[in-house]
Amino acid sequence: xxxxxxxxxxxxxxxxxxxxxxxxxxxxxxxxxxxxxxxxxxxxxxxxxxxxxxxxxxxxxxxxxxxxxxxxxxxxxxxxxxxxxxxxxxxxxxxxxxxxx
Length: 101
Ligand SMILES: [Zn+2]
Known about the structure:
Elements (H helix, E strand, L loop, with lengths): L1 E2 L21 H11 L5 E8 L7 H9 L6 E6 L4 E6 H4 L11
Parallel strand pairs: 2-3
Antiparallel strand pairs: 1-2, 3-4
This protein binds zinc ion.
């Protein structure tokens, strides 16, 4: 993911035999970004072997660190495709931290 500081933060899925403990690449990358002191995502690219979209949990976590209109690039390896969408399209009617105050 591209952060407001211009740096790219990457993540990988960390699978676990107990599925609920798996950490998705998106949340892993956010952890890298926050650890580096950044709080704002400006774009996301998700590269997979089959072009899947981020899971629902990651969509909400992404939304907490990004405006709804940021581009989300979905890259599939086989067949090779690149599709642009947005966080709003993936998570319509989302809420963010401003609505929790
Ligand atoms: Zn996820």
